[in-house]
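$ run holo --ligand "magnesium ion" --emit tokens
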Amino acid sequence: MEQRTAFVTMIGRPNVGKSSLMNRILGQKVAIVSDKPQTTRTRIMGVYTRGDDQLVFIDTPGFHKPRNMLDRSMNKAVGDGMSDVDAAVLVVEAAPKFSLENGLPPAEAELIKELKRRKLPAVLVINKIDLLDKKEKLLSLIALYTGEFDFSAVVPLSAKTGDGTDILADELKKFSKPSPHFFPDGEVTDQPEKVMVAEMIREKLLRLLDKEVPHGIAVDLEKFIERDTAEGEPIIEVEATVICEKESHKGIIIGKGGSMLKKVGTLARRDIEDFFGIRASVRLWVKVKEDWRNRQGLIHTFGLD
Ligand SMILES: Nc1nc2c(ncn2[C@@H]2O[C@H](COP(=O)(O)OP(=O)(O)OP(=O)(O)O)[C@@H](O)[C@H]2O)c(=O)[nH]1
Ligand SMILES: [Mg+2]
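-- output --
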């Protein structure tokens, strides 16, 4: 049979589960996930290949009201992710914490406007159905969204349990066109290993820290090498600087007697070892760079533009 490929972008407000869903379909974690909004900061490609079908997912940052230069660059990544794709997946939550009585909230309204402007076909995903207590709520949610846009399909699912995700993959295959695959079998992302490692470290910081601290963090990977130990065993050595915005944040990140940084390092090391399948060591430092999220040069240095 002929090879077929579809490019599909995942869009939605922050924290609805776009990255979780992409990881679940790929069967491998390529994008970091946390319970804090604005986890994803750039476009991340995830590749799913099954036989002659290849789906290329583009995970985007959650679309939100920008407060600084980094936010604007994240929102731009959403628009860029919608260019030159075959379809979009608009992800919303089954049980949103806000009221839908006054129609679509601004983030979703803006994204649907963009779908219309680009004449981009889209599938509506209602994620986190595992949290839904009453089925009726789902019906009014579907009525609201389908009243605003002619979705190719509506798929309620749970990225957490995997319930319904096969149905989504089948729906998305309908957008594929005859074309040689863009990525070789077995390749799951376009992210360089260095970026994946920095992201694994940032994920731990996002998960362990609270309030505004994790949002002002960037991870600058300074060393990433594989070498043999004296016993001839391969080991990955990682050294990274955690960048934060304030002196007070620095103290929180380091923790009492260095305890927080140690925890971050240990958890990140385990992920790195799982991913690469060999032993790893992780050393972390913390540095303050005031207001870096408004400094184009630094945003560029951290690869976030
Ligand atoms: N209960 C439940 N939680 C989920 C599900 N999918 C995702 N989550 C949780 O929702 C939170 C956000 O998940 P992410 O995948 O990081 O969400 P995102 O849309 O990529 O977020 P941003 O990158 O910030 O835009 C995490 O705590 C996930 O574990 C689901 O199906 N059910
Ligand atoms: Mg994400």
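-- notes --
The two ends are 40 Å apart (CA to CA).
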